[in-house]
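Before we proceed, please read the two lines closing this message. Report back on whether the structure tokens fit the sequence:
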Amino acid sequence: MCDERFIWASGPEWMVIYDTFDDSGLGSRWCLDKISTAQFADAIAERVGLAPDAVVAHMTACCHHIRFFDATYRFFRSRQLPQAIVTVNPDLFSEVIVPIYGFDSDCNVIVTSWEERTEDKRILNRLAIDRLGIDCANHEALLIDNKRTNIDDWISIGGAGYHYLGDERFARNLAAGGLDGMAAITT
């Protein structure tokens, strides 16, 4: 629904630093709740030249200024079918972003990697389906994701997937076939 790099809005150096940390697995540990946002801030603070509290304050401030992709966000907010947010994200997502934007009222279920302690979208998606309380086979559940590996993994166990490649393309595909048309679009 948005450019996930919003948290590094202060400049490209934050993204480079994060990418360096991500190579070491820090981002994954954060998204699996092996470290908290405060511990993440401790680890990154010196490299960005801020105190840990200032890093948390910066990330929290960035959460208040997320620019959502127009067509995608409108589609999400329209709640055409039972829907869930299934996301690989740290505690910051649930504790800051969800309340700011009211995601809990825009969808039926929110499943996060940090709470479930897995980044495997197959598991997270199945949890979402079960928590929606509907009798639904994997092929009846559409995963819209910007990471091709997540789509491929979901399809490998019978799921339907749409590889999200931007707002304009999403809007064109939605106009051309709606949800039924999207289920078949995997590239």
